[in-house]
Amino acid sequence: MKIGNFSLDKKKTAIMGILNVTPDSFSDGNLFFDADSAVERAKEIAKEGADIIDIGAESSRPGSQAVSEEEELRRILPVVKSLVKELNISISIDTYKPKVADECLKLGAHMINDITGLTNSKMLKVISSHEVPAVIMHMQGTPKNMQKNPQYKNVVLDIKTFFKQRINQAKKYKINDLILDPGIGFGKTTEHNLQIIKHLKKFEDLNYPILIGTSRKSFIGNITGDAVNERLEGTIASITIAALNGADIVRVHDVKECRKALQVADAIRRAK
After folding, report:
1. Phi, psi of 32 (to 5 degrees)
2. In the chain, where are the structural domains located?
3. From the centroid of its chain, how far is CA 54?
4. Fewest CB atoms within 10 A around its CB: which of 72, 102, 215, 255?
5. Could you report the per-residue pLDDT of 227-250, keeping only the tens digit for each?
6. What residues are labeled active site?
């Protein structure tokens, strides 16, 4: 699968660097809220070794409030416009709003990362018209309520059923380049998250690349007791195990450190 100029390679775990152009994201909110600081951070992410930059302009942390389409466009369009001109790197747009996706793709973005799992038919039409890859993420509920007592019969099998339904719907719109993200922390308890990472190989027979986003998330803090910006070691442990269990892409804040960890993990995985 090609994402812009980047091609996924089974021998190397791809790194998606996180760029939040928001005032309230759980880890880096307000750090890169203005366009200039966001562009500079994107350049750092690229230099640190990211293969893809994932730009989001609405926080999806637990309990967060949605922002208007107009506000999301105001935040994200100047950043995308600059990065398309200044960086030769694949750009993913973290949005569930069809108009935001359409406007960013018109500027030259390469992929859509939809936390609502392509459940909006208008989003399916946008992705189909631009012929770009898309991430189907699983979330139980909405960011505002997703962590209020999430329950599953079997978290892995339930998510797998959801993926099958969304894949079938995407195919009706002739969308074939799909990436599956089980949505760590999106309507899951700590135990659910651990089960997903441990049993990641159960998603492989769907025959689509798998994306995992564990970076700095609360389940790590629940295990280690660390504050949000002290979870690098836990992040590295989780993405390393995810890579060994079949993840094709990891979405992270700390690109440089995670890249080095994955170089070792990938070398071990390739060993005969």
Report:
1. -130, 40
2. 12-267
3. 7
4. 102
5. 999 999 999 999 999 999 999 999
6. 217, 251
